[in-house]
Amino acid sequence: MPDDGTGASRPWPPGVVGPPGVLLPLQFPSLGHLDARIARALALANDVEGLRLNTIRRWQYAATNFRTFLVEARVADRFLRGQLSEQLTILDDWIAWLRTVRELSQVSIRSYWTGLAAVFARISRIDAVANPWAYRPVPRATPALPRFLSRKTAVAVLRYVQDCDAASNLERTRNVVVVGLMLLAGLRRQETMNLCMSDVDLAQGTLRIRRGKGRHGGRDRFAYMPPQLSQFVEAYLDARRQARRLNAAFLVAATEDRPLALMTVRRLFMRISQAVGEPVTPHALRHTCGSLLREAGVSPQLCMDLLGHRSVAMLLHYSHTFNGEQAQAASRLRLDDPV
Question: Which of 12, 147, 173, 208 could form a disulfide with 199 if both were Cys (CB 3.0 to 4.6 A apart)?
Fold first, then answer.
């Protein structure tokens, strides 16, 4: 039997429904014991599994949010006593609380849910206890965001960041590069923000991606810049030199010599979405890059390498069909003439 933090084993309480002889109930003597168990699961995910720090932080934030709900709704004792039927009701109440009290979007609610479900899946596996999250479906993130952009919309996105008002040439060229890295090189948002100056080789047209998404902390790979993206990067580096930015991060703030902030990127995509009249996300740009590569006639194996995938199945998930497309050579991958 797993330890509850006091050294005593935990029997099944009355009224618990679960697979007898297989799983024990998920119960804790206090919120402090629950906090300690979550902290241990997060430490194991970091130290043993080697998951990315951003993933651990997202899970921790979800756990903190759930704890706040347990306290504010005064249901902590009910959740901790280990009766699965009550725990499932409390999870439903948590979702309602996120939606009505916190007024979060469906996407944010789904993110909280999946983060906390990952934590308790590890607790369940290690301690052989019931996982309430396994008995409820993941909340749907509706309305669904588009998985990729049409070529027309992609061109509109690129034109917007090239032509919109900016506080400085550094800010404008940086925003163009942010979009270009995702749209023309297929980088994920975090991969884009993690780039260092030493990772960008303009002469070779390469981008070194360190610890990209994946198991055990991800793996290193190289992404490649089409000529159009190389021109964007060259213009940005020139503006960066003129602004005397010396930070080791590749993408920097417009007003200070510090790395680009996540909130700045989020605000940029909010403006882009408003300008083009439909939701635009960093991941939609990555999906669009995969479709552009396939449209250009790039082989599946090369597409896998360029996007950092390990299987053709995942590549197909990122590859979509444009209306009226014709095969093109990879070197002709363009959205519009560069400014």
Answer: 208
Residue 220 Ramachandran class (φ > 0 left, ψ -120 to 50 alpha, else beta): beta
Q: Which two tokens stand for residue 237?
A: 């580096």
List, as one string, the DSSP characters of 295-328.
Answer: HTT--HHHHHHHHT-S-HHHHHHH----TT----
Instruction: For the domain made up of 151-332, give the CATH fold.
Output: hpI Integrase; Chain A (1.10.443)
3-state secondary structure of 201: strand
Is pTM beyond 0.70 here? no
Average pLDDT value over all residues in the chain? 82
Contact 120, 131 (CB under 8 A): yes
CATH says 31-135 is which class?
A: mainly alpha
* 51/40 Cα distance (integer angstroms): 14
pLDDT over 90 at 65, yes or no:
yes
State residue 3 phi and psi, 5-degree precision. Answer: -85, 140
What is the CB neighbour count within 10 angstroms for residue 253?
17
